[in-house]
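To whoever is covering the structure queue this week,

Two jobs came back overnight. Logging them here so there's a record in the thread.

Job A:
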Amino acid sequence: MIIDAHHHLWQPERGYRWLDEPGLDRLRRPYLPADLTAETTAAGVGATVLVEGGRCHPDEVAEFLGYAATTPVIAAVVAWIDIGAPDVAATLAAYRRLPGGELLAGVRAQVQGEADPDYLDRPEVRHGLAAVAAAGLSFDLVVRCEQLPAAARAAYAVPELKVVLDHLGKPRIDQGDTGLRAWLGPITELAGCPNVTAKLSGLVTEAGPGWTAAALSRFVAAAVDLFGPERLMFGSDWPVCLLRAGYREVLDALREALPPMSEPRRAEIFGGTAARVYRLVS
């Protein structure tokens, strides 16, 4: 079974202000469970992980857990959390009491929006990460490339936490060799943390207009070398990916960009890793 480990849903009128940024016209419409189901059915995807959309409205967590409880293809939710707040443990407990709370698999904070590249070193953030680990949940990590060193320090400091790196740490694929060199050092350090897995997601967006599978392949191959297939997972990043490519195009692009490997190893990337990390199947 193919598992899409990273996608979003939204209704713009609910407060997704980032959709007002220039160049996002394609995304300024509701994307709902019925739209997702149509895409996954056409692409042969059997399960998905719904990820928070950027701390956009206070009812998003309840809404997403409700979607997961009533939409067969949505197998788990990664909800928003203020990871530096003093009440992370209580917030997680409250999430689990919501209808569909048993489908909460992890949480994510918008670390990429923090100006401080060392944000993850702050004591209150480390305390929050420890609370996530104690709750038995994963922490999706969305960061800019320059924040990867602090991400590695945090992962080493909280070894019991399952850290999931979104979008391979957002390398500048559009910069070619320059982007590869800038990313390779810090991603190598982070990959050395055994509690870290990574998503092959969001790559067409980072590659920019005119992207090709060949442009993705060097970054994908490096990720395979560093993490191994058993620590990598496919994510469509739909509907954000629509700025560059359709759902099926993103899936096919990753298939093309992957280096040669056995079918069992490919199956890890396209389902096995996500199933283990997010506890989707036994």
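Job B:
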Amino acid sequence: MADTTANKSASRGIALPRVNSRAVVMTLYLLFLLLPIYWLLNMSLKTNTEILNDFTLWPRDLTFANYATILTDPAWYMGYVNSLIYVVMNTVISLTVALPAAYAFSRYHFMGDKHLFFWLLTNRMAPAAVFALPFFQLYSSIGLFDTHIAVALAHCLFNVPLAVWILEGFMRGVPKEIDETAYIDGYSFGRFFVKIFMPLIASGIGVAAFFCFMFSWVELLLSRTLTTVDAKPIAAIMTRTQGAAGIDWGVLAAAGVLTIVPGALVIYFVRNYIAKGFALGRV
């Protein structure tokens, strides 16, 4: 009996800890997602010779010359300036148009409202290539080609339907009695909408602004088709980097790293709004 007890104690002493399979899968998944970003950062800190001739997990000769080229060469850093200009313009225009439209869809019922709402969403479903040639001919004829407003307005075709769809879901969650109470208290529609209603859907505005910003920031086809020099965004510049000496992979990698930064900052500041959007089922 004593031997049996000792054997049981020994077996308990060498018991292996249980492995959390979910944690392992999540860790592998995060590594899989972060590997391209790490490799991009790794390339941006190498010389072009090291990138082409050696396979290293970290830079042997650490250099920031690639970032210096991006930040000092107007051909590069103006791409970021142009991108930020038309992205901000597009986000402001899209939200300005989408807010009253979403309010109308959430508060009023009229003939063909559901068909109109569905037709609005179909514009978001269409590929950008369908509209590239019509926009090119239109803007060339009216003198808007190669301007920031041209790209901003073109992106509104896709961002306004998405913003209306997101905001309409948030607005439906606000009781209509709030509108009626505000009107009884003497508020005009404009004052009620800005002072009372918009703060109630601030999370929805944040989510819509995030998606408008991200689509306009990463979109390539329209921004490349509708610009040449003055308003060329960074996404288009990165596709035209081959010169007489070939492709400068280090500079291109540095440009890629800097292109990720604005999107990461936007995600950080609106992360709570995005989580609420998931909870409400509109994201």
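Note for Job B: The beta strands are 242-243, 246-247.

Please reply-all if you pick these up so we don't duplicate work.
Q.
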